Prior knowledge:
Elements: E1 4-15, E2 23-52, E3 59-91, E4 95-111, E5 117-131, E6 136-148, E7 154-159, E8 163-175, E9 178-193, E10 197-213, H1 220-225
Antiparallel strand pairs: 1-3, 1-4, 2-3, 3-10, 4-9, 5-6, 5-10, 6-7, 8-9
Amino acid sequence: SAAIIAGSAAEVAIYNFSHRPTETGTSTNTYAQTIANKGAVISAANANAVFLSNCQQLLAANLSESTVKGEGSKYSGLAQSQAAILGDFDLDPKETFSFTFQTVLHLFTSVDNPKSERASAQGNLSFLLIDTVSNILLDSFQLGGGLYSFKHPDLSLSYSNSFKPTTIDFDFLAQGNTKQSVLYAFGEYSRTFDNATNLRLVEVLNNIAEAEAVPEPSTILGTAMFLGFLAKRKKLKNK
């Protein structure tokens, strides 16, 4: 029954590691804000991360989700979430480091009145492979997207040669003032290192949902005043 809904969620699973990590870490961070002058709004953010390295089958996984729901004539809501995974690996010369990855990014927006209500859902996920001795970024995988009730969606995907996605699926649905997108990727990372390498894997999810309802402006100047959206802090703490 909500007049506005904005939702952004991402999930990643990493498994089939060729090497056991020497050190692991996880980090989560959430932020939610609501302002309701004439109406009601709920902002919710959730983040979870785990790296299971003390069992036979290694597994790293994280989940990040942000949602804003509101109803009324004047309110705003913001939800941000972040979940990160870190693993350090020691590789001998001529060894091949590899793992399998699965990712999904789900975005959703819905409004009743596009003239006086705005919703946006944004998300991104990234893999970084870093040489901790030289502090050089060796490989990366970046996937992101945004859905907006007031403009066209955007989508980005880039990766280095050591990432080999075998499946990339994108589904988009627009019905009335409701939009939904799901981006799924599955594949493998594999790289042979000529020299001994201290390698760090960092995987991070970021999700943002925003929604606001304002009285319909009667002038062009009034319309411009309501086009601003928040891009708040993003913080990662390694443990």
